[in-house]
Amino acid sequence: MSIWEYANPKKFLATTEKVMPALWVSSAVLISVGLVWGFFFTPDDYRQGSTVKIIFLHVPSALMAINAWFMMLVTSLVWVIRRHHVSALAARAAAPVGVVMTVIALVTGAIWGQPMWGTWWAWDPRLTSFLVLFLFYLGYIALWEAIDNPDTAADLTSILCLVGSVFAVLSRYAVNFWNQGLHQGASLSLDEKENVADAFSNPLYVCMAGFVLLFIALVFYRTGTEIRARRIKALMARERLEA
Amino acid sequence: MIALLLRDLKLAFRAGGGFGLGLAFFLIVTVMVPFSVGPQSELLARIAPGVLWLGALLACLLSLDRLLALDWEDGSLDLLATAPLPLESTVSIKALAHWITTGLPLVMAAPVLGVLLNLPVQGFQWLVVSLLLGTPALSVIGTFGAALTVGLKRGGLLMSLLVMPLYVPTLIFGSEVARRGAEGMAVQTPLLLLAGISAASIALLPFASAAVLRVNLR
């Protein structure tokens, strides 16, 4: 039993169809439990008031925005090295999900920043690097859409993803150069003493797990759609050939 | 390799090659800035390094679609790809030709435009140094973008969308050097980082460009 079995589209579809209902239900349950718990059963922060509760949307979406790109990087590498079509299609399927997560993180961050920092937007390193990540997603999706031949598109976009990852990391550290900025550092690390208080972190973990499962479900679903679209195209081409 | 470089340079310099268009664009963008932000000389002096860097970047970007598209159209790119010269060297030479015809004139024109924008005196040498170090990276990164979109009919806008995010680190460090130079601060750190980005791009990106070009020529 190796992971490469799922490079077979038929096997991939059969397996994902089996786990899909469980994924949808568990992500829906986790997100609703996490949000209800977070919104209604946590105390208000003594300085931030109830605006602190936007953390339950902001942090999970930011987490997935970065990890979606990372997943695209891995699947692009798999496509370049082993040329499994499902892998390229999964990268294509993940990009729009990642873009939506990036937008959620940026918008919730702006809504949170307005009462806390007194501004919707600041050219803070973290904020800026997310904006740059957003631009990278846009370019990646636009390149997929612009090319007709699916194999050429998969090759070009995966190389763009590899090169783009390097430059995205470079930009992340380049913007650090200005100043520390408004955004706080990481406050959910395992190795640090001072973390977000337990009252907030427990529902936050639930929300993060829910977002991870939601992302996996969406990517499986969209990859399945891409595989079927590819199949329809092949069938129609065969039909035309026989007619 | 030298023959290829000379050929590209000749094509660019002679009629219809579009040499000087990038330079004219750089000039017009810089001249437009005071019209949009107002003619106060302190304000212009403060934004001059950033404006000049952005203008140079845009001028570079606009000349990219000629870099490979003409050779693609008349088929000479296929010949170059099948020639004994490795495709990696071919794209490096193309990038070098682009830099000589676009980047170098920009570097030389920048001080003149700096006068128009009231750039402080101590800023001139660092502006030139930063552009001299940064524009090769712009050419090499741009060649990668041009190679990505060479097969597309209307690749120009898409190429801008793809190349601009890749220009971000170069732009940050380049204009940081120019800004610090103009304000009389120490420039060493951003200067070294800018040089590092340029060197790494020149060393590594031709491989990516050649790989992309091979896919497009398939």
Question: Which labels suit this protein?
Answer:
heterodimer, A: 243 residues, mainly alpha, 6 helices, B: 218 residues, 83% helix
Describe this structure in words.
The complex is a heterodimer of chains A (243) and B (218). By secondary structure, chain A is mainly α. Chain A is 77% helix and 0% strand. Chain A contains 6 helices and no strands. Chain A has helices at 9-40, 55-82, 85-117, 125-146, 150-175, 198-242. In chain A, α3 (85-117) runs antiparallel to α6. The model of chain A has no long low-confidence stretch (mean pLDDT 86). With 218 residues, chain B is mostly helical. Chain B has helices at 2-13, 21-37, 41-62, 65-73, 76-82, 87-116, 123-148, 155-182, 188-217. In chain B, α1 crosses α6 (87-116), α3 runs antiparallel to α8 and α7 runs antiparallel to α8. The two termini of chain B are 23 Å apart. The mean pLDDT of chain B is 88. Classes of the chains: A mainly alpha (243), B mainly alpha (218). Chains A and B meet through α4 and α5 of A and α8 and α9 of B.
